[in-house]
Each structure stands twice: as C-alpha cells, then as structure tokens.
Design goal:
Largest interface: A-B, 27 and 34 residues
Largest sheet of chain A: 5 strands, antiparallel
CATH topology of the largest domain in chain B: Rossmann fold
Distance between the termini of chain B: 77 Å
Shape of chain B: globular
Order of helices and strands of chain A: EHEEHEEHEEHEE
CATH architecture of the largest domain in chain B: 3-Layer(aba) Sandwich
Shape of chain A: globular
Number of strands of chain B: 20
CATH class of the largest domain in chain B: Alpha Beta
Distance between the termini of chain A: 54 Å
Strand content of chain B: 15-25%
CATH superfamily of the largest domain in chain A: ACT domain
CATH class of the largest domain in chain A: Alpha Beta
Structural class of chain A: alpha+beta
Low-confidence stretches of chain A: none
Number of helices of chain B: 25
Oligomer: heterodimer
Strand order of the largest sheet of chain B: 3-2-4-5-7-6
CATH architecture of the largest domain in chain A: 2-Layer Sandwich
Low-confidence stretches of chain B: 577-588
Helix content of chain B: 25-40%
Radius of gyration of chain B: 25 Å
Number of domains of chain B: 3
Chain lengths: 182, 588
C-alpha cells in the first residue's frame, strides 16, 4: 500500500475546465484591482485576460472583465468570493460559448515591410474591422477588434507580412438585446 | 462652529461609540499621537502587551470569549507585520478583530521611510477588508465601517492604517448612526421553502447526524440554546468540530464527541455511514473530511452557513441554507413544532437501529489510553484538570499540537465561548496571549491555557503582561520535551526519523515563572498531580504549571492522511487487543 507521507490528503480526480468571462462592477478606489487580482492568485485561480476601466464617473464605478478557466465548482467559488469583497457591487458570469453575449478584444499590429506586403497585411485583416492608425513608407500600425482565438491566429499568420510588434487588450463583454445585467 | 477634533481623538471617539472598553497594543513612533490621547478617554483601558502578535491573540481571546470585537493598536512597519499572524489566525477562525495601525506621514509613503511598510498590501489577503486613511474627513466613517465589516456576516479581522499626519489633523466628528441594512454583505436570505425541505429531510432520515461548528458560537449564545432544543426535539446524534465545542453539552448522551482527524470512532463512523448530514456553521475543513472522494458517500447533505462562499467549496451539498444560524434554527424549530408534535417520541423507532449502531461504535471507547502509575499520561492530566475545575465556570485556551487535541478530546465543554483555540491556522503560541485576553474580559473567572512546552515558548513574553495586570491565568504545560505532534507524524510516516522535533535545551519553567514574578509549580508523578493542580487553582496569581508527562504518548484515535472516516487508527490499547493486520499495520 502506498504510504502517504503527508499530513494532507491526496489530490482528487481532476475535472473538466470551462472558460468563463467574469464581469465585476467595483468602486473605483485605491487597491481595488489588487484585491480582485490577489483573490485570484491567492486561491490559485487562473486569469487568461483582464480588462479594467472606469465606466461611471459620477458613481465612481469601474468594470473589470476577467477571462478565466475552471471547473464549475471553481467558477462558483470565484463568483462567491468576489461578492464577499467590500468594494464589489455585482458579479456577472458568462460562458464563452454563450450566444447571447458579445466578446471582443482589440489588438494593435505594427508591420515593418515594403509597400506590397503592407497592403497584403491590411487585406488579411479585413474581416476584423481594421483601422490604420499610423502609416509611413516602411511601416503601418493597424488596429483590429476580434475574438481572442482570431487574434491569436492573426498574429501567427501575419508574421510573413512583416509583423514586428503586437499589443492587445483583455476581452470585454456585453449582453445582446435590450436586457441589462442587474 | 462645531468643535474640531484631531484624528487621534476621532479614533477614540469612534471606539467609545462602539462601546469598546479594552484595547490591546504596543506604542511606537507612528502611533504616538493616538497614545497621547489615551489619557483623555477613561472608558477605554489599554493593555500593554510584549509583542504585537500577543496583542492580536489577546484580542482574539477577548473576542471569542465575549462575542464582542477585539481591538488592537500597533505601530507602523514591524508593529504591523508582527500582527499579521494574529490577523491571519482570526481570518481563518472567523474572529472579529479591528486592528488599528500607525503609518508614516502621507508625504513619506512610498519613500521607504523609517518603519514604513505597505501595511494594507501585506494584510489584504488576511483581512476581510482594510483601509488606508488618506483624508482626515474619511476617518470616522472608515472606523465605524471597520467595526461593521468585522462583526457582520461571517465575522473576521479588519485593519485601519492611519498615517501620522492624519492623526494630528483636525476635523468635525460625524456622529455615528447605527444602520440596519449592512452593505449588502450580510446574508440572511433563506426562505420558508428551505426550512420546509429541511424538516422533510429530518422526518424521513433513518440515519441522521448533526455536524456543528464554530458558526453556532459566532451566532451568539441564543444559537447554542436553539441548537440544544433542536437536537433534543429530534433525538438525533450530534458531533462537533474543534471550534464548535461547547455549543452542545459534551456530557450529554446525544453528543458523540469531536469528529475529524482526531475525533472519536463513533463520530467519524456515524459521519461516514449517515443518510442525512446537517452541517450547522461548519466548513468541511480538510481536517474534518479526510479523503474528499470518500467523504460520507451515502448521505444527503444540508449546509447551514452565513457565508455563501462556504457552500459547495469543498463538498457538494444537496440543500444549502444561507443565513444566520440563530434565525435558521429558530425557523426550523418553529416549523418542526408546528408540523410534527412530539417528533422525538414519534420518530424514536425510525432511528433506533441507528442509535444501536452508534452504541456499538461507542463501545470501542476510542479515547481510552493505557494508564500508568509511574509517569503522568497527558490524557490523565487533562482528565484530572477537568474533574477539578468542572464545577467552576472555566475558560480554556490552548496552543497547537497534541495537547490541543487531548484537551479537545478529554475536557468536556458545556457552554459556548469557553473554549479558545487556533483551529484553522494552527498557530503555536496562541494560547498564552489568548488567555490574557480572556482574563481581561472575565476578571473573576478561572482561565487555563492548556499548553505544550514548545508552543508556549513562542509567546512566553506575555507572562509579563499577565503579571503587570494581575491576571491570574494558569499556564498548564504538558511537557514532553518534544514537538509532540511533529514527533507523532515522524513516528507514523517518516520511519521514526525524529528530525529536529526534540528540544534539547528547555528552560526550567518553575524558575522562569519566578523570574517573571509569578508562581511556578511542577508535577512529576500521577500521585502528586491532584494536589499540585489544587495548589494551582488556589493560587490567586498567574501560574506556570510544568506537568512532566509521558514523552512517547501519541494522540489517538486518528484518521491517517488521505483516508476516509471509516478507516481510523485506534490507540495502542485497541491495537494490543486485536492485532491490526494488513493495511492497518503499514500505517502504525
């Protein structure tokens, strides 16, 4: 018999992980992001991406959007633990597959190449609302908005057109239709 | 024009409004303005400790034994970091604490000033919430909010960090109004439907058990009364976690003793085999559940807790009820009485074979040990201490280790708030300062710290506090010269490689007591034990009692790591009677 040399139990069976988007409305005050992020790192939860900004200046409310993975039990814990934080007002949780929710990330691509390649690069981006933000003879900065996996794919495919630098945001989310999350 | 108050004055005005009568603390540069005001507020007595960790544990002892929040006041930098252990301890065991720390002046924050540290950053994960006061106009509001957060919902520690310049600045004092609705963080949102479901489960159960924890004690003495009523009116067996001891009388026949790693055979087997488990204010801690995958496999589980995040955290339950224990129990009792009169009588037959089974487990007498006439067995020492103190309203604190488990097993608690121990964090050195805090709150009562010689040395300096304030605490040391629990694990799991668990140089505790200005007593044989304990009880001063006990004794019964409840390891007596073979042997 395997003799456990530990005062603790052995880890149980691993469950399947799902990707969820957690949206948290918080008081925009010093340290609030640290509280939210610290809760994730302290309890061993994942953060795949993070987006945060003030959305209501009058009420001083910030909206934090976190993409995370975990078992259903872990996702439940994340929500319940977040709700316990004093500056947290409400917490919403969406599955990534949820058809009723829009997810978007933004990316900035910098290309350094000859004109021909720069034109090709722009064309390659055409499905993702490309905007040229800066242009010189040798370079271009293009902004796109898309899903995470689309941006992942793009950043891989565009290297051949002289992609030299990528900067991207975390995902932001919003429900479709007239309903507002309360 | 209204009167202007300094930040330091506002701190005390808030404490007065919150009915705080004692604070535990230690002065230093960044809190001097607050200490300067102390003389002007007669209703608040300051207890000077010898180390900030001691202030924290004393405040915990005070809080646990009274139900009121404990308050500590410490300086910046090392003052704050020294308090971190106590804050974490209070966070794990849900003890309401308000910690006020000094901070370097606002303009020096971030410059690595003398005795500066990022106090709010360091304590963020070990408090329910903390505040750095940057504007004097926020101070009173934050102070009152701090008390509110500490004491509502699941209680816990909070911290208010006040820079020195804010302590000097002046402003108006905003009067405190107690608000009923608390921040939306107090959760009492169960419905009658939940209660009806609970009663339905109760009436159907054939093998039920109540599993109760510290939440019952935190909910107030009324909750313990209601729990007793519910247990009597159902006739169900009840077991308790370490923190829940005392909310149900330990000498009652329906009480199966403590459960978990060092719980009784009957409690753990009943947990394993039950068909209905009603968890009241406990949190399915890993010391309780053992192997999660095999935890009570056949039962319906009900979980009553004020903290929604405790539900389904470790164990999935069938009926969660989120609410204050007291109000949940009150509704449950009301519904039970209305729908099923004389339930305990009418239901007696349904659970009679369950009780028979429990009696069979009980007959194993899993807490028995082999007595000795030459050396004092630690269990015997606690039994004698119990017998000689049970007629007094005794408050017991403990350190952490074997002695703590023996105290939990052999000292019988009949009232809530009489048992202060570090369960979640397992802080060695908790018991002595906690005893100081308990004695401050209950000056006329008997307060005993059941200690181990290794633990007690971690906060021994607080004896000096006890002497200063004439606190007749009794430090009852079960001295086996080992870090006993470490030694036990090494014996059972690491092939008796007693790596660094023996303390080769210990102080003479009797002389040490005398050096501190208190009384030292030593007991060496079982024969003299009673007389010495009586001598201790008759001494109206702090006492260090050095009880020399068997050095090899292990704490049984025990669930080895990674095992379910029904695979317990019993004591040497049982092992001798029935030789353990096969699986069991490799564990011994």
């Amino acid at each position: 018999m395997a003799n456990s040399k530990s005062a603790y139990s052995i880890a149980g069976k691993k469950q399947k992980n799902d990707t969820h988007i957690i949206v948290v409305w918080v008081d925009n005050e010093a340290g609030v992001l640290a509280r939210v992020v610290g809760l994730f790192s302290g309890r061993g939860y994942n953060i795949e991406s993070l987006a945060v900004a003030e959305v209501d200046q009058k009420e001083n409310i910030s909206r934090i959007t976190i993409v995370t993975t975990g078992t259903p039990q872990v996702i439940d814990q994340i929500k319940l633990q977040l709700k316990k934080l004093v500056p947290v007002h409400k917490v919403a949780d969406f599955k990534r597959e949820d058809k009723n929710v829009i997810f978007k990330e933004m990316a900035l691509f910098k290309f350094v190449a000859n004109n021909e390649k720069l034109i090709k690069a722009f064309k390659a981006c055409k499905n993702y609302n490309p905007v040229v933000l800066d242009k010189t003879k040798k370079s271009k900065v293009i902004q796109i908005t898309a899903l995470r996996r689309e941006i992942d794919k793009m950043s891989k495919n565009l290297t051949k057109f002289g992609l030299v630098s990528v900067s991207r945001t975390g995902a932001v989310a919003m429900t479709r239709g007239s309903d507002v999350f309360k | 024009m209204p009167k202007l108050y300094s930040g330091a004055e506002i701190v005390f005005k808030c404490l007065e409004d919150q009915n705080v009568s004692h604070i535990f603390g230690y002065p230093g540069g960044a809190v001097l303005p607050i200490y300067d005001e102390l003389k002007n507020f007669n209703s608040i007595k300051h207890i000077l400790v010898r180390h900030e960790q001691g202030a924290g544990h004393a405040a915990e002892g005070y809080a646990r034994s009274t139900g009121k929040p404990g308050v500590l006041l410490v300086t910046s930098g090392p003052g704050a970091t020294n308090a971190v252990t106590a804050l974490t301890d209070a966070y794990m065991d849900s003890v309401p604490l308000v910690c006020i720390t000094g901070q370097v002046p606002t303009h020096l924050i971030g410059t690595d000033a003398f005795q500066e540290c990022d106090t709010t950053g360091i304590t963020r994960p070990c408090t329910k919430h903390n505040w750095l006061v940057k504007d004097i106009n926020d101070l009173s509001e934050i102070m009152h909010k701090a008390f509110e957060v500490a004491t509502t919902g699941r209680p816990g520690p909070v911290l208010v960090d006040i820079p020195k310049d804010i302590q000097f600045q002046k402003t108006k004092y905003k009067n405190y109004r107690k608000v009923k609705k608390l921040n939306g963080k107090s959760h009492d949102n169960f419905s009658q439907k939940n209660i009806d479901e609970l009663i339905k489960l109760i009436s159907k159960a054939k093998k039920p058990i109540f599993y109760t924890g510290g939440g019952v004690i935190n909910s107030g003495p009324k909750a313990s009364e209601l729990l007793r009523e519910l247990v009597y009116s159902t006739g169900f067996p009840i077991t308790s976690t370490l923190q829940g001891l005392g909310c149900f009388p330990a000498d009652d026949n329906q009480f199966l003793g403590m459960l978990g790693m060092h719980g009784t055979y009957e409690a753990n087997n009943a947990m394993y085999s039950c068909d209905l488990m009603i968890n009241i204010g406990a949190r399915f801690d890993d010391r309780i559940t053992g192997k999660i995958d095999e935890f009570s496999p056949k039962s319906k589980k009900v979980h009553i807790d004020i903290d929604p995040s405790s539900i389904n955290k470790n164990v999935k339950v069938d009926l969660p009820i989120v609410g204050d224990i007291q109000s949940v129990l009150a509704s449950a009792l009301k519904t039970l009485k209305k729908s099923k009169k004389n339930f305990s009588k009418s239901n007696k037959h349904q659970i009679s074979s369950w009780w028979e089974k429990i009696q069979k487990w009980r007959s194993k007498r899993s807490l028995d040990y082999i007595g000795s006439e030459e050396t004092i067995k630690p269990q015997y020492a606690i039994e004698r201490l119990y017998e000689l103190t049970k007629d007094k309203d005794t408050y017991i604190t403990t350190e952490v280790g074997q002695h703590q488990m023996w105290a939990a097993q052999h000292y019988k608690f009949n009232k809530p708030n009489r048992w202060m121990t570090s369960g979640g964090l397992g802080t060695m050195g908790y018991g002595l300062p906690a005893a100081v805090g308990v004695q401050i709150a209950h000056p006329k009562k008997l307060v005993v710290d059941i200690a181990g010689e290794a633990s007690v040395l971690m906060t021994m300096q607080e004896m000096s506090t006890a002497v200063q304030y004439n606190l007749p605490i009794k430090i009852f040391i079960l001295n086996n010269e080992y870090m006993g629990m470490v030694r036990q694990w090494q014996e059972l799991l690491h092939d008796k490689n007693y790596s660094e668990s023996y303390t080769a140089a210990l102080p003479d505790f009797v002389k040490m007591a005398e050096a501190y200005g208190c009384v030292g007593i030593r007991a060496k044989t079982p024969e003299e034990l009673d007389d010495k304990i009586i001598e201790m009880l008759n001494t109206d001063r702090p006492v260090i009692f050095d009880c020399l006990v068997d050095k090899q004794e292990n704490c049984f019964p025990m669930i080895p790591s990674g095992k379910p409840h029904n695979q317990m390891l019993l004591g040497p007596k049982d092992q001798k009677d029935k030789k353990i073979t096969g699986k069991g042997r490799t564990l011994v």
